[in-house]
Design a protein that fits this description.
By secondary structure, this protein is an all-alpha fold. The protein has 22 helices and no strands. The two termini are about 40 Å apart. The mean pLDDT is about 80.
Length: about 425
């Protein structure tokens, strides 16, 4: 490799700027502009690619709208109602509150679409509930909160899957429904492990909620539980586009929070708008940087070169997917997930398609890898977040995370080797892949 070539210097600039604390999106723009300068290309190409990529894709509008819906629903009393519902369903089983933590992540997935939002919102509340009165150690509660939070972005609405749809041209609707069974599988293996661990560690069981109270608690949480049903129903009936469905989700969240539950005031709405705007801007800058850098990658013909290189090894589709699992797990332990989706996956996707791998299956497997990477030592982003929230050492947190990491990787292998687990529901909805 020529370390003085324009692409090498551009990559070096991106890494150096990132290490200096410059946001990744800005670093990618800076490195890309350096590449254009060194190649003697029109510097305005960076702006052209950025504007063409952002203004020609209505799908991008879905991201801030989903974020707004999640922020509104987590700002009011909806989260409390959902936690009561989860406790009524699984609190009576061994490891009661631990089971509730996983179930609330599955339910909260319909609102957040983000692992970090889940951990910082409902996860933070579950951390406090589990450690109250010494029921669970802070390390175990923090580890469980981190690993359960990765379920959210696999289930619809999923911001990572929206980003993958952006770079792959795959249907958002089919990707959303493809993530349902893998997401539920991830929750099931976590709850199964908690059941086994509760027998050994004698985790407490919560006082069972009387069955006569269950209909009232369910009815109280039903409007929030209906959000994913309405969202997917609108998508697959053809009533709305993905962007319109995201707008409908935000409007629905506002309606039930203000009119039905009456849990939001004007000040809460204003803070929700500000919070979602800040989150959207940070993601938007990352997308902008990735669009410009992808132009550089395409100019260097890297996807075609890599595809020819990998095909030269005559890999089978299964062997390729297992290799990609290893690569993405390693990258996920060091890089932010959106960066991997926007920069790395477009390079790998042509090879996957050439090998006959379904792009929907590939996308879900990739997102599963990236989410697991968030809790993979040594630099999993969720691990660092939970050390601050729970005030525990990283070593103790990692020790409690490892058993969950093992069963999650087992679930990932199952999803990788059994494509029908991903494609069954999309095919029922009319997908021809």
């Amino acid at each position: 490799m020529n370390f003085t070539s324009p692409i090498s210097l551009a990559l070096g600039a991106i890494i150096a700027l990132s290490l200096l604390g410059v946001p990744v999106g800005h670093a990618m723009i800076g490195g890309s502009v350096l590449y254009l300068y060194l190649k003697g290309m029109d510097m305005g190409s960076a702006a052209e690619q950025l504007l063409n990529g952002t203004y020609s894709s209505f799908l991008l509008l879905a991201i801030p709208l989903f974020i707004l819906a999640a922020t509104i629903m987590s700002s009011g009393s909806i989260l409390d109602r959902l936690l009561r519902f989860c406790n009524a369903i699984v609190g009576r089983f061994p490891g009661g509150l631990a089971q509730v933590n996983v179930l609330q992540s599955i339910v909260f997935a319909s609102m957040s679409g983000s692992a970090l939002a889940d951990a910082a919102g409902s996860g933070k509340m579950m951390q406090a509930m589990m450690t109250r009165d010494g029921k669970y150690t802070r390390e175990f509660a923090a580890a469980l909160t981190a690993v359960s939070a990765v379920i959210g972005p696999i289930l619809p609405p999923s911001i990572p899957l929206v980003l993958y749809a952006l770079v792959s041209g795959t249907s958002v609707g089919y990707l959303f429904i493809a993530g349902v069974l893998p997401g539920l599988l991830m929750g099931a293996v976590q709850m199964g492990l908690i059941y086994v661990m509760s027998r050994r560690r004698h985790f407490p069981v919560e006082a069972p909620v009387p069955l006569r109270e269950l209909p009232r608690i369910t009815l109280d949480a039903l409007p929030a539980l209906m959000l994913p049903v309405i969202l997917l129903g609108c998508l697959y009936s053809g009533v709305t586009t993905p962007t319109e469905a995201a707008g409908l989700a935000a409007a629905y969240a506002l309606l039930i929070s203000v009119v039905l539950y009456r849990s939001l005031g004007w000040g809460d709405i204003y803070r929700s708008l500000i919070t979602s705007a800040r989150t959207s801007i940070s993601i938007g800058m990352l997308i902008a940087g990735a669009l410009v850098f992808n132009y550089v990658i395409t100019s260097e013909n890297i996807p075609a070169t890599l595809s020819a290189f990998l095909q030269g090894y005559d890999l089978s589709p299964v062997a390729f997917l297992l290799l990609i699992n290893l690569i993405l797990l390693l990258l996920g332990a060091f890089l932010e997930g959106s960066t991997i989706i926007l920069v790395v996956l477009p390079v790998l996707l042509p090879t996957a398609v050439a090998l006959g791998i379904d792009p929907v299956h590939f996308g879900v497997v990739a997102v599963l890898n990236i989410m697991i990477g968030l809790v993979t030592p040594p630099y999993g982003l969720l691990l660092f977040m939970m050390t601050k929230i729970a005030e525990v050492s990283l070593l103790a947190l990692v020790r409690e995370t490892l058993p969950f990491l093992a069963v999650m990787i087992g679930a990932l292998v199952l999803v990788t080797l059994w494509p029908d687990l991903v494609l069954f529901l999309p095919r029922l909805a009319g997908y021809s892949g």
